Write a sequence for this structure.
């Protein structure tokens, strides 16, 4: 039985992790985000369990290791928030949840596309106010449109399959093309061709030095005028200031975001009684053709159950064998 300090713990983490754990380990749920200020709350627990906006930086890792922590169990697929070099030199194992219902994130990307295209967010408000006018709600048929998928891993492939079901032509860019994707009729193209051809661009790649601000002024200039961009990957894949310029000029016709570069100061908290300090984010909220959700793409019962079961399996395997089931691999390429 290991002591596990679970940071950024929300009621759903308590519910799903406790059920998956079934008394196997001693779980301590800590509401605070992991950071240099809160790392002491880990209290020397053998395992620290972290989520996407926890700051698993070098100083945090050093302090954890010095206090006796041996494992960082991530409740996420992405690991861009972990200083892997520091973890390696401190001798800490890092596990993650590589695959949990790719449907959750893929379907959320589709939800953003449908909402933006058919103006559901605006129609909802109009109808509640007794305004049944259709002006400004005009959409387009998805059937026959070209969808560009950047990153065809588990989620990107699932997303591509759904869009094929809508009758879309799906093109993709990935340094490691997937045969499964090609088999479902997806065509791999160079990134610039994807930018130039796609009516809708969906980002499903991890955040790496190569994908940081992949969507910037230069990329937007290569896209079809009025393109729809949807990002459910990681916030920093998109340069938020560049997309604001693109929205103002009409270069971008619609934008759906589930992630935002500076989301750590905003998402997962109820800030409805406070003034938002992030002016870039506040500007994004003003556009009628922007829909933002607060990193909720993963938030389905099936995904939470998958995350909890794999996290506990990683911790149990580490206790029994000294290594986790799903170690964090060095980024490919
Ligand atoms: P995966 O590891 O199965 O696939 C990622 C794919 O991206 C791979 O095929 C890889 O070759 C490709 N890739 C790497 N560098 C690339 C580049 N420069 N350009 C284009 N493609 C590149 O990961 P999975 O499970 O499909 O997840 C994708 C990302 O989605 C995660 O890294 C994570 O950041 C994000 N995510 C977001 C969630 C949310 O709630 N919004 C939940 C889960 C994941």
């Amino acid at each position: 039985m290991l002591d596990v300090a679970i940071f950024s713990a929300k009621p759903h983490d308590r519910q799903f992790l406790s059920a998956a754990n079934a008394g196997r380990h001693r779980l301590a749920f800590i509401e605070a985000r992991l950071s240099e200020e809160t790392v002491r709350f880990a209290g020397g627990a053998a395992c620290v369990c972290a989520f996407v906006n926890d700051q698993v930086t070098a100083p945090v890792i050093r302090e954890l290791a010095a206090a006796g922590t041996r494992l960082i169990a991530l409740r996420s697929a992405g690991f861009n928030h972990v200083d892997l070099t520091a973890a390696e030199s401190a001798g800490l194992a890092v596990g993650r949840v590589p695959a949990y219902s790719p449907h959750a994130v893929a379907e959320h990307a589709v939800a953003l596309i449908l909402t933006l295209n058919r103006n559901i967010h605006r129609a909802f408000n109009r109808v509640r106010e007794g305004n049944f006018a259709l002006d400004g709600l005009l959409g387009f048929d998805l059937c026959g449109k070209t969808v560009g998928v950047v990153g065809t891993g588990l989620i990107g492939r699932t997303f591509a399959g759904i869009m094929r079901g809508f009758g879309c032509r799906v093109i993709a860019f990935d340094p490691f093309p997937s045969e499964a994707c090609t088999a479902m009729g997806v065509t791999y193209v160079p990134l610039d061709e994807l930018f130039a051809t796609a009516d809708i661009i969906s980002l499903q790649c991890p955040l790496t030095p190569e994908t940081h601000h992949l969507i910037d002024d230069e990329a937007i200039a290569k896209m079809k005028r009025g393109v729809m961009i949807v990002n459910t990957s990681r916030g920093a894949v998109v340069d938020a200031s560049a997309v604001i310029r693109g929205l103002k000029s009409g270069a971008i016709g619609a934008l759906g975001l589930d992630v935002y570069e500076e989301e750590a100061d905003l998402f997962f908290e109820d800030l409805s009684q406070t003034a938002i300090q992030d002016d870039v984010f506040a500007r994004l909220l003003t556009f009628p053709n922007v829909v933002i959700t607060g990193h909720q793409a993963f938030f389905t019962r099936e995904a939470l159950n998958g995350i909890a079961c794999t996290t506990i399996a990683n911790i149990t395997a580490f206790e029994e064998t000294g290594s986790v089931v799903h170690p964090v691999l060095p980024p490919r390429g």
Remarks:
- The radius of gyration is 21 Å.
- The CA atoms of residues 116 and 254 lie 7 Å apart.
- The mean pLDDT is 96.
- The chain has two domains: 3-100+301-329, 102-292.
